[in-house]
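Let's practice the habit of predicting before peeking. Look at the sequence and jot down your guess about where helices and strands might fall. Then scroll down.
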Amino acid sequence: MTIKLPGAAQKAFRELGADLAITYLNDKAKAYVEPLAESLGAEIPMPLDVSKPGELAALFARIEQVWSKFDIMVHSIAFAPKQDLQAQKVVSNYNVMGPVKAALEASCRYLAYELGPQKIRVHAISPGPLKTRAASALKDFDLLLNEAGERAPVGELVDIMDVGFACAFLATPYARRITGETMYVDGGVNIMG
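Done guessing? Here is the structure:
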């Protein structure tokens, strides 16, 4: 099994025996990602800025050189200019990202429909609040974490491994008839009013 998986959840795939290609956005991110990729034995650590022409093609060319096939891709590509994240929306201080994530979930449903005949499954993962470098930029993020922990029916917050194992499950044959869904990995916070 070969996987192109940016982010910390690649540990779960590695635990299940996957070969990994791990990407990073830029030199700043490389400092964090490269040591992790090395510790996991990732065969392909590469830069990938999808807004730069040629980087995606270079990644797939490298994958073709190293592996005979490509089974699974998990991505967490997202970007919004900081000035676009200043308007208040439903979730305090989350701003325009709420509508953007809703559009992403709809895109996953359409991709699942369009790619299903080719036996390609598409999923969206919606984790609860996680302590990440990106989340640390949100105003009052600690309050959001505390509220989520209190509201979660399981009584605790999720961690990145919970998200990783959910992704890994969806990539297995055990989930072969699941596609187009948004999987909430949030301890049940999403069902609470």
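How did you do? Confidence is low (pLDDT under 50) at residues 1-6.
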